[in-house]
Write a structure and sequence with these properties.
Layout lengths: L2 H11 L10 H21 L2 H6 L1 E12 L5 E7 H6 L7 E13 L2 E12 L2 E15 L2 E11 L11
Parallel strand pairs: 1-6
Antiparallel strand pairs: 1-2, 3-4, 4-5, 5-6
């Protein structure tokens, strides 16, 4: 029996030494859970909860489309962004189609969103999150998002 045949036989028999490969899906789930927790805090206006999910030195960058097609760029710290969130706000931000990439202790998430107030779409766009893992915990470092008020969905105008 050749060495290759012997290794194959051991693998098939389950006698090969075990090696625990990291499961990237575990990180993907943890990362998207962190993003969804931030959305939940944002929707209820819970500023303290929002700030627990973010890295204090991170930034929020908003790209808001103007009527002429150009974008206004606005940058805030997470604390400044949180100050602008009214407590108990009644909005619903729904996300779709998340794309998640994890590389060691950093991750990115791209996700489409629609914001509704009283059932009416008020804006939509794309969110881009940068996350870092520090001491085993994922925190959102930065958020960059686009925002527009037209072309949001087939329900627009209802």
């Amino acid at each position: 029996m050749t060495m290759r045949s012997m290794l194959l036989a051991l693998l098939l028999a389950g006698a090969a030494p075990a090696y625990a490969y990291p499961d990237p899906w575990d990180d993907n789930v943890t990362v998207i859970e962190r993003v969804r927790a931030l959305f939940a805090a944002f929707e209820t206006g819970d500023v303290a909860a929002m700030l627990r999910h973010v890295y204090p030195d991170g930034r929020v960058t908003a790209l808001e489309r103007r009527g002429d097609g150009a974008s206004n760029v606005r940058q805030l710290s997470w604390a400044q962004f949180a100050e602008r969130v009214p407590p108990g706000r009644a909005l619903l931000e729904r996300t779709t189609d998340p794309m998640i990439m994890v590389a060691g202790d950093f991750a990115i998430v791209w996700i489409s969103f629609e914001v509704r107030v009283a059932g009416r779409i008020v804006n939509c766009g794309l969110d881009h999150f940068d996350l870092v893992r520090e001491n085993g915990a994922w925190k959102i470092m930065n958020l960059t998002f686009s925002s527009q008020t037209t072309g949001c969905s087939a329900e627009e105008g209802r």
